[in-house]
Batch of 2 targets.
Target 1
Amino acid sequence: MFEKISTQANKLVSLTNKLHSNSKTKVIVVTSGKGGVGKSTLTSNIAYLLSQKKKKVAVLDADIGLANLQVIFNLKPKKTFMDYLEGECELEDIQLKTSYNNITLIAGKSGYQYSKIKNSMHFDRLVNDLVALNKYDVLLIDTGAGLNEQVQEFIDITDNIFAVTTTDPSALTDVYALMKMISMKKNKLMLCFNFTAKYDIGASITTSLKNLALKNKLNRNFMVQYMGNVSQMNSISTTGRLRKLFAKELKQDVASLELNLVVENLLKSLK
C-alpha cells in the first residue's frame, strides 16, 4: 500500500515538473520578510510595466487573510483562489480581468481563516493549474509578510524569488533571515530596495549582505542579485489612495523610471 502511494506521489511530482517545463509561464514570487515595505504596491506596478513590454501577466494575491490587491486594482471579486481550492468554483471564475490590458488578477480573501486548507500541495496545485493554462508570460505571486509556512510553500514553487526591502534595520534583519532560509534550497535571491533614494545605497547594502552570508558560511553557491532601487515619492501614496498605478499615471516620475530599470533587470534574470 505504501509503495502504491509513493508511486502516485512520484507521478504527481513528475507531472508538476512537466507542467512547468512545457509552459511559457515564468513564475515569480514577490516576498519581503517584513511588512510595510511597499511590496504589494511594487508588485502591481511591476505587473503594469511588464504588460507594457508586451507580457501577458497574472497576479496572484497570496497574502493569506490580508489580501489587498483587489483594492489596488479597484476590483470587487466574487470568487477568490480559496474558493477554487475548496472546490466552490472553477479556475476560470477566479481569473479576473483588470482595467489594464494584459493584466489578470487572481484575488485572495481578506480575513480568511486558514482552516480548511492545511497541507501543502494545495498552493502547489493552484500555481500549476495556472501555469498549465500556458496563457500567461508571467505569474507574479505576491506573498504575505513574514516567513510563515504559507509563504515558504509559495517560495518552494519557483527559483525566481524577488525580495522587497528597505534600509530600515528591522527590514534588513528580516531579509537576511529570508536569505538564510532560501539558501538551503535555492541558489539565488533577487533584491530590490524600496523607499531608497539612491541606487548606490542599495548596491552597497547588498554587498554587505553578501559578505555577511559568506562570513556565516551560507551556501557558497548562493547569490544575491541587486535589481535596483525605488525612491520614496509623495506621488506614490497619492496614486495609491486613488487606486491608480504610479507607473502608469506618472511615467516620467523618478520612481517610475527606477522601477522600469528594476523590471528590465528582472526580465534578464528569469529562469
Target 2
Amino acid sequence: MKQSKMSARVLALAAGILLAGALVGIAKAASGPPTVDPATEFSNAPEVDVNVPNSPSASTAPRVVPGTGGVNLSKSSSNVLSSWEGVNFVAQRTADSGNQFSLEPPDQGLCVGNGYVVEPVNDAFAIYTTSGGGPIGGVEALNPFFTNDHAVVRSTPPVYGTFLSDPKCYWDPGNGHFYFTILALNRVPAGGAYTGESHVLIAVSKTTTPSTDPAQWWHYDINTTNDGAEPLYTGGPNTADHAGCPCFGDQPLIGADKYGFYITTNEFNTAGTIFNGAQFYAMDKDALANGVQPVVEYIPGGGLEEGPSYSAQPATSPTRGSWDTNANGTEFFLSSLDFNGTTDNRIAIWSFTNTKSLQTGVPAAVLTHSVMPSEVYATPSPADQKNGHTALGEALGDPQGVLNSNDDRMNQVVYANGLLWSGVNSEVHTSNGASSQTNRVGIAYFIVKPTTEAPATGVVQNQGYVSVKQDNVLFPSIGVNASGTGFMTFTVVGQNYHPSAAYVPISAAGVSDGAILALGGASEDGFTCYPQYTGANVCRWGDYSAAVATPAGDVFVATEWNKQLTYPPYLANWSTYVADLAP
C-alpha cells in the first residue's frame, strides 16, 4: 500500500525509526549548533512508514499528470473580512508552562460557530471571536485539556505524559455544540515507553460557548487498540480482536450529518508491520452533546478494490439544511486509491445510510462504497522554497531544506449544495510537460454528485488542478457554503515564495485566480529540515489545512505559513494564519 503516516509529528530518521514529540532543548547561541537534553529530546512513537507492503495497482492512469496552466495569486484581496496570525510554534512550545515538546508540523484544525473560532494544532489550541483579536483564555496545551497530564515534565528523571496528535474540531449547525478529537497513545510516565493501548478521545462542549477549561466539556473515549481485551467505550463491548494487534488508529478524521458523528482512522499494529485499513466509528451526536455515552457502531472498512482502504474522509456540512436525510439519513465519505505511491485515476465514495438509527440506541447504519473514474493524480515530490536565511540550518552547517508534501490521500470533505468537495496533493506539470524539471506540487480537486441510496455511488461532476508556475501549492482544504460557493486554502512555496498562506475561490464551475493571505517572511527552518535530527533534508509541513463555511455564507480558512525566524532560542519557526473570507 501507499505510505501512511503514524501522526502529524512523526520524523523519518536515518535508521528508519519514526520519532515523535521531537526536540525540546534550547539553543545556547546562534553561532553554534543547539544543545539539547537527550532525555527529553525525542519521544519514541510506533513506526509505520516502512515495512508495509505495496499493493499492485489496477489503475490505468498514465505515469504523468497532464500539463496545467495554473492560477494567478495577487498580493491583495477584497475577499478578506478579518484575518490574524493564529497559534504559532512559540505559543505551542511555551504552553503549559513549557511542559511541551517542540513539534512540527502543526496539523491545522479549525471550527467556527456561535461567534467563536476554535483553532487546534499539535499540541495546543486557542479560542478567538470571529472578528479576531487575542486568544480568549490564552493558548491551552492539549495534554492538560484531554488527559490531565503534561506532555513532558523535565524533572530528574523526566516524566512523560500521554502522546497526543492529529487534533480535529467541528461545530454542529444543528445543536450548536463544538466537537474536538485527538489521537492518544498511553505511555509509562517513567521513561516514556508505550503501553500498546491507544484511543481516540472526544470532547464536546457542554454549552454552545467553547472554553479552554476542560470542565466545560463532556469527555469520551473510544479504545482503538483492537486486541479484544478492553471495552470499545465506557459500558460497551470489548474491541474487535484483529490479528497483529495491539493497534492504534492513526490520523482520526471526523464528520457529521443530521443524526450522527463519525470518526475514521487508519489502523496499524504498534510494531508498524501490519496495516488493517480504514476503521469507521458512528455514534449519536446529540447524545454526545448532552453528556450521554452513546452506543458506538464500529465497522472495519476492509479492502478497497485491489488494495486496503485508507484515509476515508467523512463530510461536514455548512448548515442544517445541507444534510442529506434520504435513506433515513446519509453520511458521505471520499477516499483516494493510489495504493503504490505512483499515480491513479479513480476515487472512492462511501456512505453510511440509515444513520437515524444511531439515535435509537440500536444503531444499524449501513456502510457501502463504490469507485468512480477521475482525473489523474500522483504522489508528489517535496516542494522547493525560496532561498533565504536559515539560522538553525546555518548553525548546524546544513543547506536549506525542501518541504515534505507527503502523499495524495484525500483531504477535508464538505457536503454542500448537494455536492461533495475535496482535493489531494498531486504532482503536476506547470509547463508543457516536456521535462521532468517542470514537475511541481499542485492540487487535484474533485466535485462529486453522490446518490443517497445504498450502495454508495456518485459521479465526478467537475474536477481540475490548482498550480502556480515556478511554485508549489500543497495541503488543500475547501470550505463551501450552502449555495455552493467558497474557497480552497493551501500553502504556496517555491522559487518566488517563502512558505505563505493563500487561497483561490471555488464553485461548481471550478476554481479561479486567488490571492496571498499571509506572505511568508522567512524560509522554513525547523529541526525536521536537518539530518542531525531526522536523517534527511526534508522539512515536515502541513500535514493539512482547514476551511469551514458558516451558516451566514462566509468561509473561514486556516493554514501554515512562516512569519519570521525564531532560532535562537526556538528550534522551529512555523506559524498559522486564520482568515474570514466573503465569496
